[in-house]
Amino acid sequence: MIEDSIRNKVVQAMQPMHFSIENESYRHNVPAGSESHFKLVVVSDAFDGLSRVKRHQHIYSVLSEEMEKIHALALHLYTETEWGNQGQEAPLSPNCRGGTGK
Question: Signal sequence span per UniProt (predicted)?
Fold first, then answer.
């Protein structure tokens, strides 16, 4: 499963203090059981000193194989301090705005 692969690779590479993954494919116009849209929340001090772009690039590199198989990956990447300042909550995902087939 793609979700398991994402989880294993990110946890191994980042050693996060907090990690969550949500398969948001059900919110989109894809067949039931799809693994096409994911939301990741990763809290790791490995992000210290890295810009938002560099953090995303690092995760994309870790997940290079999986990125070829999925349509969307929402990334919420924080240091431990940022996560605390954020109230230990990631933003909610917006509703799907396309792909309705209409």
Answer: none
